[in-house]
Amino acid sequence: MAKLRIGVLASGRGTNLQAIIDAVETGEVEAEIAVVVSNRPRALALQRAMCHNIPSVVIRQPDYPGRVEHQVAIAGLLREKGVGLVVLAGFDRILVPEFVRQFPFRVINIHPSLLPAFAGGLHAQAEALSYGVKVTGCTVHFSTEEVDAGPIILQAAVPVLDDDTVESLSARILEQEHKLLPLAIQLIAEGAVEVAGRRTIVTRSQRGD
Ligand code: GRF
Questions:
Q1: Which of the listed residues 58, 80, 103 is the one where a domain comes to its end?
Q2: Which of 37, 174, 178 to mutate to test the pocket of ligand 1 (most atoms within 8 A of CB)?
Q3: CB of 148 closer than 6 angstroms to any ligand 1 atom
């Protein structure tokens, strides 16, 4: 069977992209990274792709009349590359419906909180800390037209410690992100994730692991 082709959208340092690259290279994720797309020419994520001979493309929003045109251009490239799953790994743009509708339940995102808590912003870890929750974590979910509100695929909990700073908490959440995102991609590649209304049903791998 042909491998799932994934397109990764990343705007920043790309540690989640790196986790995916590593998992593909070890065979833990049976998929191929067809392309990495960034809206930021200086994103470290682009260097990571280059180091692993993964095609990467910069598509900057200022080069287009607006958000819709920018994202339609990204969607066009992903289609050209035969991408079957779009992975948002620190992509700093809110997706427009014109993008999401082209890949129904074929776009996933990683968010650094246990959704629906601390949705929507860029500072979920700081919000968790200042709210005083004792447990936070990360969520991989399908992206729909509503921000951070699509069906949840996987979540991992991370305790908030009394002496946590935003940095220490973010680092512990990130460790979990690096496990959760590749796992979600593998489950999707195996056909083990079904969407049932608001929920997903994750069936175990046919290989029994
Ligand atoms: C992560 O915290 C992720 O949860 C959020 O953006 C950050 C990306 O980090 N969506 P990195 O670029 O993958 O290191």
A1: 103
A2: 174
A3: no
- Domain harbouring 145, CATH code: 3.40.50.170
- pTM to 2 decimals? 0.96
* Atom number of ligand 1 nearest to Cα 19: 13
Q: What's the residue count for the chain?
A: 209
Q: How many domains does the chain divide into?
A: 2
Query: Which of ligand 1's atoms lies nearest the C-alpha of 15?
Result: 14
The label of the residue with tokens 């339609």 reads 72
Burial of 199 (0-12, 13-18, 19+ CB in 10 A): exposed
Q: Residue 38 is part of which domain span? A: 1-103
Shared-domain flag, residues 142 and 99: no
Residues 30 and 95 in one domain: yes
Give the three-class secondary structure for 161: coil
Instruction: Band the pLDDT of 1: cuts 50, 70, 90.
Output: confident
Q: Which of 47, 78, 103 is the last residue of a domain?
A: 103
Determine the Cα–Cα distance for residues 115 and 143; give it in Å rounded to an integer.
Answer: 13
Specify whether 58 is located in the same domain as 31. yes
In which band, very low, low, confident or very high, does the pLDDT at 205 lie, cut at 50, 70 and 90?
low
Nearest CA to ligand 1 atom 9: 90
**Does residue 123's CB lie within 6 angstroms of at least one atom of ligand 1?**
no
CA distance 85 to 63: 25
Does residue 14's CB lie within 6 angstroms of at least one atom of ligand 1?
yes
